[in-house]
Amino acid sequence: MQITVVGSGYVGLVSGACFADVGHSVTCVDLDEAKVAALSAGHVPFYEPGLEPMVAKNIKAGRLSFSADMTQPVANADAVLIAVGTPTRRGDGRAELAYVHAAARAVAKHVRNFTVVITKSTVPVGTGDQVEDMIRQTNPAADIAVVSNPEFLRQGNAIEDFRHPDRIIVGINEARARPVIKQLYHPIIAGRNLLIFTSRRSAELTKYAANAFLAMKVSFINEIADLCENTGADVRDVALGLGLDPRIGPKFLVPGPGYGGSCFPKDTMALAQTGRDNASPLKLVESTIAVNEHRKQAMAQRIIELCGGDVDGKKIAVLGLAFKPNTDDLREASSIAIINALQLAGAKIAAFDPQGTTPATTILRDVEYCDDPYAVAVDAECLVLVTEWDIFGSLEFKRLHKLMATPRIVDLRNMFDRAELESLGFQYRGIGLPQ
Ligand code: UGA
């Protein structure tokens, strides 16, 4: 199949590379010529495990190419995937659809034969109708079917998720699109019953409902963690017991410093707004957002408390800046709110992240960025684990103890062994543990 992907950001690039890897012929289109040049040379502009070698391999095999001009790629395509960003619109929290609309109009100009236009971007319910109207208005002769096919990839795990989806949601309003979608996903589903065909609106809403539900699970366990601390229970035991009920499930019950990333914060805001716009207030989603915002500030307060109520002039060492491990993405990361709050209280911040330092330098000012976890700890009054990168699981705590001014650890992911640290003389504070 000939596939054209419009937008070479995270979703577009991962989808394009993975579809090429299973044998389709893919062109990824992006307006940014410098990005197209870099990608054509095999350079991926962000960190995602396994993606760069996959891009290079498929360029070499002649299945993957990049272009700043969509004329031919769209004219030749069996399917065009729209995978442009839908960031939060300033002011009202709605999803910004300008890039989706621009992509729809541009695609309309170049389609030739019957083409399935697939929206992969996360878009509010009803956007597929707008995309279809725009294409038909721009080019009344366009022979298209517009499909909603939301993406459920997780950053840091995207290739694995793409290869082994638990479901593929496809919202179609026209039966003609069905065989094209089946052909597109044929190499991935390998005979399994993974394709769920729904209406376009149901597919669009499913994406937001899924992300909001997961975010709600995280906010729920974070609140339960606080209650555990105040009642002498242990959130790890509570989460285990909860998750063993198959109706609840064990995932997304790990308490932490609040969820971040490019999806949960943006999508919960947009869904809450959709609820307001459609006379269906989503009180649980609104609360999830409020709980998460409060959580980040509460984490800064927790650090200040362990430091005796005052961090003015004190050095705080931060391990992990990315919103989760295996990514260099800091969008809406809890580390930002926590560091800003600590700086406001007068703390001096040193930080280390295995991948996130370069993007952090443009977001977090007045931070001493270090090259390893030991350099960050020198003369620190407190070490704060924000992102649970694997490498932090093998830290040498005796060495850290010697380097720090005061051996204190705030472990916002319950990654470390509290008994071991306390036996070494650290003051330790985790999440949701008995005091
Ligand atoms: C999320 C969804 O999990 C994907 O299914 C979805 O496709 C994606 O958004 C998207 O819409 O594109 P992602 O943002 O990559 O994926 O990250 P998650 O693994 O979901 O983590 C989000 C945040 O929740 C992170 O800050 C993480 O630390 C936090 N989290 C997650 C917890 O604090 N506890 C948990 O138990 C799970």
Ordered list of secondary-structure elements with their pairings:
Elements (H helix, E strand, L loop, with lengths): L1 E5 L3 H12 L3 E5 L3 H8 L10 H10 L3 E4 L3 H5 L3 E4 L15 H13 L4 E5 L7 H12 L5 E5 L9 H6 L4 E5 L4 H13 L5 E4 L1 H32 L3 H9 L20 H14 L5 H24 L8 E5 L14 H11 L3 E5 L4 H7 L3 E3 L3 H5 L4 E4 L11 H7 L4 E4 L6 H6 L3 E3 L6
Parallel strand pairs: 1-2, 1-4, 2-3, 4-5, 5-6, 7-8, 9-10, 9-12, 10-11, 12-13, 13-14
Antiparallel strand pairs: 6-7
Helix pairs in contact: 1-3, 5-6, 9-11, 9-12, 11-12, 12-13
The structure holds uridine-5'-diphosphate-glucuronic acid (UGA).
The site of uridine-5'-diphosphate-glucuronic acid (UGA) has 20 residues, from helix 9.
Label this structure with key terms.
435 residues; alpha/beta; Rossmann fold; 8-stranded mixed beta sheet; 6-stranded parallel beta sheet; 14 strands; globular
Q: Short description, anyone?
A:
By secondary structure, this protein is α/β, with parallel strands linked by helices.
